[in-house]
Design goal:
single chain, 67 residues, 0% strand, elongated
């Protein structure tokens, strides 16, 4: 769905009622948040993926390396 399709869906939701409009906005917000977690370079999800990898790697290294 493009941005135009999302706007059309929002207009239809507004015509159906406030509750329907809020549901549509919540679903769009969740979708954008999940899409943002995808590890693609222009999105923030790439930073999350690298940080998670580094965290897991550092935990594995500290368990096998005596200090």
């Amino acid at each position: 769905m493009s941005i135009v399709g999302a706007v059309r869906l929002g207009v239809q939701g507004a015509q159906a009622g406030t509750g329907t409009l809020l549901e549509i906005l919540m679903i769009l917000n969740i979708f954008v948040g999940l899409l943002n977690m995808v590890p693609m370079l222009p999105l923030d999800g790439g930073f999350v993926a690298v940080a998670t990898y580094e965290r897991v790697r550092s935990h594995r290294g500290s368990a096998t390396t005596p200090t």
